[in-house]
Design a protein that fits this description.
The complex is a heterodimer.
Chain A lengths: L3 E7 L5 H9 L3 H7 E6 L12 E7 L2 E3 H13 E7 H6 L11 H8 L8 E5 L9 E3 L6 H13 L10 H8 L4 H4 L16 H4 L16 H10 L4 H9 L6 H12 L1
Parallel strand pairs in A: 1-2, 1-3, 3-5, 5-7
Antiparallel strand pairs in A: 4-6
Helix pairs in contact in A: 10-12, 11-12
Chain B lengths: L10 E5 H10 L5 E8 L2 E6 L18 H4 L4 E10 L1 E6 L7 E6 L1 H14 L6 H8 L1 E6 L10 H4 L13 E6 L2 E6 L2 H6 L5 E2 L2 H15 L11 H4 L7 H9 L6 H5 L6 E7 L5 E8 L9 E2 L2 E2 L4 H13 L2 H4 L9 H4 L7 H11 L3
Parallel strand pairs in B: 2-6, 6-7, 7-8
Antiparallel strand pairs in B: 1-9, 1-10, 2-3, 4-5, 4-12, 8-9, 11-12, 13-14
The chains are: A alpha/beta, B alpha+beta.
The complex binds iron/sulfur cluster (SF4) (5 copies).
One iron/sulfur cluster (SF4) binds next to helix 13 of chain B.
Chain lengths: 257, 351
C-alpha cells in the first residue's frame, strides 16, 4: 500500500500534541509505516503547508488572522481533517482569554502591542468543518489510533461521547465528588482519558472539555451548594472550556446568582 | 449455583470465627471475594484471608453481581483480516469463586441478571462465571439512608428460594447458616448447633425489627401504568433541566442495569480488531442513536427512560427491576431520587 500523505499543523499551543504524535505514543513505528509525514514543524523545518493531504491533523487554538487563512487552505486541500488536543477541539488553555476583551488582555500581558495581532480565540471548528475530534491534553491515544485507522480503512471513526463518570465507574473508582466532596468536573466532561484524575484520587478539571449536551449549569449549582466560591466555580468552567457554549452557560448561571 | 437435585437444606448456628476459618479453607479451590473496608466505604474485592472481610458493611458503590458475574468491560473475540477474516474466540474468564456477604438486594439483582443472560439467549461468558460462583448471602443488620428494598420485597432479609448457595443471619457471636444449594451442602462441613424453631423465631423477630427502620419507601401499587400515562409530567423536564447531568452514574451503579455496548478496536498495524463489550447507559445521549436519528435527544426523555425501566417493568420480566438498594440515589451527583419523582407523579394520580 502506498503511504498516505499526512500533514500536522500547529497553531497557538504548547506543541505537546505534535510531541505526543511524533515521539510518545505506543505505536510510532506503525504510524510511520502507514503515513508519509509531508509536513510537521516539530520534526522538520522543510516542507510547505501545501497539499494535497490524505489526512490533516491540526493542533492549537486559532488566535491570529494568518492562521485562519492557512487553516482554510489546508481544509480545502485535505481529504480528512481532525482537530487534535483540547486547544484545537474546544479552545483549551489559550481560550482562557475568551471571556475578556482582547485589548484588556493584551495590555495585561505585553508592554508593547505593536507586534500583537491577535484575534478572539476559537476552536478549529469555528472556522472549518472537521471530520473528528481527538480530544485531550495530551490527546487520548485510543482516539488518535481510531482517527488514523479510520482513514486507512475508509470507515467512519467512532469517538466516545459520554461522561468521564462512565469511564470512572467502569474502572471501579470510588467517586471523589460524593465520597470526598471534591469538585469533580467528570459528570460534564467528555470521556477518553480513562478517568485519569479520579483514578489518582483527584477531581477532574475537564481537560477533555464538555461532552455533548452537558448540563454545566446544574453542576455549577451543585458546586455552589458544596460551598465552592463563585470565583473558583468560574475558574473551573473557564480553564479549558471558556470558549464553549456548554461551559459559558455555567458561568452565566453563576453570575446570575 | 443451585442444582435441581434434592439436597439437605440444613440450618445451623456456627461461631463466626469457625465460619471465617471455613471460608479460608475454600481458598485452595476458589477465589474468595467479599466486602472490604476502604476509608469510610466498603468495596467488594478479592481477599487473601477472611481477616480482611468487613461483614458489617452498610452498602457498596458497585454491586458484586456487576463486578464478578457481569463484567464492566470484557473482551469477546478478536478477528484478523489478512485477505480473509479469521476469528479468534476469547474464552470466558471464569475462575471458581466464592462471593460472601452479598446482601439480599444484591442477590435479587443477580437473579434479575439471570433472567437477561440465562434465559432466551444464553450469554456464554455470564453463564460460565455463574456456574463457577458460590454465592453466600448475608441478611442485613442495618438500614442505610437510601435503602428501600423493603418496599419492593427485595430485602432486608432474603426470601428467594433458590439461585444462591447459602444464607447467613448475624446472631451476635454466631451466624445462622442456611444451606440453599447442593454445592453448599457438599462444601459445608461444619457441625455447629442445629437451629430449631426457637432460632427461627429469633430470626423472624430480627427481620421484623429491621423492617421498622426504613425511612425511604415507595408505594409500588399501580406503578405499572402510571409512567406510561405521565410521559409529559412536568417532573421529568424540571428534574432534567435543574439537576440531571446525564452523567449516567445512576445506571453504572445500578445492580440490575444490564445494557451493554459492543465496541471494536483496530490495532494500529490494521491486522487485528478486538471486539469487547462494556456497560452502556440510557442516560447517555448516544444510547438511542440509530441510523437516521436519535429517539431520545431530550435529557428529560433519558431520565424518564431510566426511572421508568426501573419501576414500571413487571411486564418485562414478571418482577420489578429495582431491588431498592438506593445506590442510584446515593451516587447521583445531584441527588436525584427515583422514589421522590414517583411520589411527585403519584400525588396527581391516586393509586
Ligand atoms: S469521581 Fe468524578 S468522574 Fe468519577 S464518577 Fe465521581 S464525579 Fe464522575
Ligand atoms: S480526568 Fe479530567 S482533567 Fe483528568 S485527564 Fe481526564 S479529562 Fe483531563
Ligand atoms: S440521574 Fe443523577 S446520576 Fe443519573 S444521569 Fe442524572 S445526574 Fe447523573
Ligand atoms: S434503580 Fe436505584 S435503587 Fe433500584 S436497583 Fe437500581 S440503583 Fe438500586
Ligand atoms: S435503565 Fe437504561 S441502562 Fe438500565 S437496563 Fe434500563 S435501558 Fe438499560
Amino acid at each position: 500500500m502506498n503511504k498516505l500523505r499526512l500533514g500536522f499543523f500547529k497553531y497557538s499551543c504548547c506543541m505537546g500534541c505534535s510531541y505526543f504524535f511524533a515521539y510518545v505514543h505506543k505505536h510510532v513505528p506503525e504510524v510511520l509505516a502507514s503515513f508519509d509525514f509531508v509536513f510537521i514543524k516539530l520534526l522538520s523545518r522543510k516542507g510547505i503547508p501545501e497539499g494535497p493531504f490524505d489526512i490533516a491533523l491540526v493542533e492549537g487554538t486559532i488566535t491570529e488572522a494568518w492562521q485562519v487563512d492557512e487553516l482554510k487552505m489546508i481544509r480545502e486541500q485535505s481529504k480528512k481533517l481532525f482537530a487534535v488536543g483540547s486547544c484545537a477541539v474546544i479552545g483549551g488553555i489559550p481560550a482562557i482569554k475568551a471571556t475578556t476583551p482582547e485589548l484588556e488582555i493584551e495590555k495585561r500581558v505585553y508592554k508593547n502591542l505593536s507586534s500583537i495581532h491577535s484575534i478572539k480565540p476559537h476552536a478549529v471548528d469555528a472556522y472549518v468543518k472537521v471530520d473528528g475530534y481527538i480530544r485531550g491534553c495530551p490527546p487520548a491515544e485510543r482516539d488518535l489510533y481510531e482517527a488514523l485507522t479510520s482513514v486507512l480503512t475508509g470507515r467512519k471513526p467512532d469517538f466516545p461521547q459520554y461522561s468521564v463518570c462512565i469511564e470512572c465507574k467502569l474502572k471501579g473508582n470510588l467517586c471523589v465528588l460524593i465520597a470526598d466532596n471534591m469538585p469533580c468536573m467528570g459528570p460534564v466532561t467528555n470521556a477518553g482519558c480513562g478517568a485519569l484524575c479520579p483514578s489518582m484520587n483527584r477531581a477532574c478539571y475537564s481537560c477533555f472539555g464538555p461532552m455533548k449536551q452537558a448540563n454545566a449549569p446544574a453542576l455549577a449549582k451543585k458546586f455552589k451548594a458544596m460551598g465552592i466560591s463563585r470565583d473558583d466555580i468560574i475558574r473551573k468552567f473557564t480553564e479549558f472550556g471558556a470558549d464553549t457554549i456548554e461551559f459559558r452557560k455555567a458561568v452565566e448561571t453563576v453570575y446570575e446568582d | 449455583m443451585t442444582g435441581e437435585r434434592t439436597f439437605q437444606k440444613f440450618k445451623r448456628l456456627i461461631p463466626k470465627k469457625a465460619f471465617l476459618l471455613w471460608l479460608d479453607s475454600l481458598k485452595k479451590d476458589y477465589k474468595l471475594i467479599g466486602p472490604v473496608k476502604t476509608g469510610n466505604h466498603a468495596v467488594f474485592k478479592e481477599v487473601d484471608s477472611s481477616e480482611e472481610l468487613f461483614m458489617e458493611y452498610g452498602t457498596t458503590m458497585l454491586s458484586p453481581g456487576k463486578l464478578f458475574l457481569y463484567k464492566p468491560n470484557e473482551e469477546l473475540f478478536r478477528f484478523a483480516m489478512n485477505g480473509k477474516i479469521t476469528i479468534d474466540e476469547i474464552a470466558p474468564i471464569a475462575e471458581k469463586q466464592v462471593i460472601v456477604g452479598v446482601h439480599p438486594c444484591d442477590v435479587n439483582a443477580i437473579l434479575y441478571l439471570d433472567r437477561i443472560f440465562l434465559r432466551t439467549f444464553k450469554d456464554t461468558h455470564y453463564e460460565a462465571r455463574r456456574k463457577n460462583t458460590v454465592i453466600i448471602s448475608l441478611n442485613c443488620a442495618r438500614v442505610s439512608e437510601n435503602c428501600f428494598c423493603s418496599s419492593v420485597g427485595a430485602g432486608p432479609f432474603l426470601h428467594a428460594a433458590s439461585g444462591y448457595d447459602m444464607l447467613l443471619t448475624d446472631f451476635e457471636n454466631e451466624y445462622l447458616v442456611e444451606i440453599k444449594s447442593r454445592e453448599a451442602e457438599e462444601l459445608f462441613g461444619l457441625e455447629g448447633r442445629v437451629a430449631g424453631r426457637d432460632e427461627m423465631r429469633v430470626k423472624a423477630e430480627k427481620e421484623k425489627s429491621m423492617q421498622g427502620k426504613f425511612t425511604k419507601t415507595i408505594n409500588v401499587s399501580g406503578l405499572d401504568n402510571i409512567f406510561a400515562e405521565n410521559m409529559e409530567h412536568p417532573v421529568w423536564q424540571q428534574t432534567a433541566e435543574e439537576k440531571c447531568l446525564s452523567c449516567a452514574n445512576c445506571v453504572m451503579v445500578c445492580p440490575t442495569c444490564f445494557c451493554y455496548d459492543l465496541r471494536d478496536e483496530m490495532s494500529m498495524d490494521l491486522k487485528t480488531v478486538t471486539r469487547y463489550r462494556c456497560f452502556d447507559a440510557c442516560q447517555d445521549i448516544r444510547f438511542a442513536e440509530v441510523h437516521g436519528g436519535n429517539f431520545r435527544q431530550r435529557r428529560a426523555a433519558r431520565l424518564r427512560q431510566f426511572v421508568t425501566h426501573k419501576l414500571d417493568q413487571t411486564n418485562q420480566y414478571g418482577v420489578s427491576a429495582t431491588v431498592g438498594c438506593g445506590r442510584c440515589i446515593t451516587w447521583c451527583p445531584t441527588g436525584i431520587d427515583l422514589t421522590e419523582i414517583t411520589k411527585e407523579i403519584q400525588r396527581y394520580e391516586p393509586a
